[in-house]
UniProtKB/TrEMBL annotation, chains A, B:
Its EC number is 5.2.1.2. Belongs to the GST superfamily. Zeta family. SUPFAM superfamilies: GST C-terminal domain-like, Thioredoxin-like. One of its GO terms (molecular function) is maleylacetoacetate isomerase activity. It holds the Pfam family GST_C. It is an enzyme of class 5 (isomerase). This is Maleylacetoacetate isomerase. Residues 1-82 form the GST N-terminal domain. The keyword Cytoplasm does not apply. One of its GO terms (biological process) is L-phenylalanine catabolic process. The gene is maiA.
């Protein structure tokens, strides 16, 4: 199994956490999103993933894009370490928290969007930072309220789920953009608990071979 | 079962299609995203969905947000009309196409983002349109290439899946913003096939009671 990713990609970071938690052996291959005008735009990578985004998982003959589809694949193929609750209501509610991040926060703040604000809309760095912080704070305020209802040791009850797997990379990103995280005590309680675990720690951007 | 939605919301539109295909009886309740400064921001709706977004599904005591989690709930609770392929690889690949839209296209172009461009970044309507078109065209170009590999009668093979359910609302939206869809023949072939089906037609924005 091979994961094409990038150290700072939140979406690749999610998959690295899941691989570690499920103890799946996987080769990590760096697609540098900045070098060479973005290696994700190369012809060979585009063949693998027409979206020209990371991550892409290759398992034998199959190549699969979209981090949430990859998490789903790993969940179905390697169910022993479950990363979703079993009961229907709990299952979909934990997923909803993950989508709160994957669909409503992250897509607005990834590298290509921030680049577009600079390069196409000629926005200054201060405006870019304001944009970033706006969408994270809007999203985290809602998530903070949701966690007050769902949180146990982790985002949804006492077991690690996709919600935590999506949350930790988003918090990493928010801190990079100097978002004041002290306004989100529920989020930070869960984050600190996850960060103390070796599976999360080893998946962190700074621990990756392509980190610069 | 009650679905809180809005006629023009792509995410609510997805759920309406799934409800129709699965023949599930569901009361549709309008949360007008523009009237009264946006009814999604009311205290009573915020209680139901802290994200202040539509849709929200209420089934008995349970309330669930995030359209992709709602599709999942319907899929697990009402499996008779399957909207995902059964085999693992096919299952996650169909989901990946749906996420191509739900995570990489739609979030950049929904109402709150376009409003932010106008109101906070003081961008003119022409720039807003350029923004909209840019992200749809980038996303649809990639999807067009993916469909060349996966398409049968529908986005993924010959059965309707989440990919079609996400695609039709996104095409509706793209046409509203005058995107030239003739550059995407695979997308339009599937779209026209879906639109001819009563379950898709009845879910369309113009058919909703709150359409104005």
């Amino acid at each position: 199994m091979k994961l094409f990713g990038y150290w700072r990609s939140s979406a690749a970071y999610r998959v690295r956490i899941a691989l570690n938690l499920k103890k799946i052996d996987c080769e990590l291959i760096s697609i540098h999103l900045v070098k060479d005008g973005g290696q994700q735009h190369s012809q060979s990578y585009k063949e693998l993933n027409p979206n020209e985004l990371v991550p892409t998982l290759v398992d034998g003959e199959m190549s699969l894009n979209q981090s949430m589809a990859i998490l789903d694949y790993l969940e179905q193929k390697y169910p022993d370490v479950a990363l979703l609750p079993k009961g229907l209501e709990d299952n979909v509610k934990a997923k909803a928290l993950a989508y709160d991040i994957a669909c409503d926060i992250h897509p607005l703040n990834n590298l290509r969007v921030l680049s577009y604000l600079s390069n196409e809309l000629n926005q200054e760095d201060a405006i870019k930072k304001q944009w970033y912080q706006h969408w994270v704070v809007v999203g985290f305020k809602a998530l903070e309220a949701s966690l007050a209802r769902t949180k146990g040791l982790f985002c949804y009850g006492d077991e690690i789920s996709w919600a935590d797997i999506c949350l930790i990379p988003q918090v990493y990103n928010a801190e990079r953009f100097n978002v004041d995280m002290s306004q989100f005590p529920n989020i930070m309680e869960v984050t600190n608990r996850c960060r103390a675990l070796p599976e999360f720690w080893a998946a962190a951007p700074e621990q990756q071979a392509d980190a610069t």
